[in-house]
Specification:
Layout lengths: L4 E5 L5 H8 L3 E7 L2 H10 L5 E3 L11 H6 L13 E4 L22 H11 L3 E6 L2 H20 L4 E8 L10 E8 L8
Parallel strand pairs: 1-2, 1-4, 2-3, 4-5
Antiparallel strand pairs: 5-7, 6-7
Length: 188
Amino acid sequence: MTAYRAVSLFSGCGGFCEGARLTGLEVAAAVEWDRFALQTYRHNFPEVPLFSGDIHDFLNPESSAWAREADRFKGVDRSTIDMVFGGPPCQGYSQIGTRLLDDPRNELYLQYVRILKTLRPRVFLMENVPNMLLLAKGRFKREVLAALAEAGYSNCGVAVVAATDYGVPQLRKRVIFFGVRDGLALEA
């Protein structure tokens, strides 16, 4: 059986990618812009094509940065990607962050959605902090779910999970948005 192929967004140093790899997923591409995280990611995942730049440029045919890099990602398209996963920056939502409604990082989930529209994977996972669900009386939760539905992922849900329940030695909770592309049935 061929491995399922995934794209990692907001990859950081690769923790989410390691989890994906441990489940048998092939990470076909990753996107990160932080120069320190990039160094660590390249060390940990030298085989993964890494787009080291702004998420706005990834898979964007109007971007000159993408034009320079596109050849390295020829195998990343609608016909080859089964899953998109990643966690947009949380600082604007976090209890210990700014919690400013107009923090530009709060809108980066829209780039995640743009890439879902472009690649049309079967499934997605998006991770963030629980306060993303609560900030502004649930505004961002409603906006994210509406954007996902408009992108063709109305069959989705949200769960708050404790990291310790999954073997992570941290006392922290995370929110997981997950979904299946419209028109696909879940197999039992």
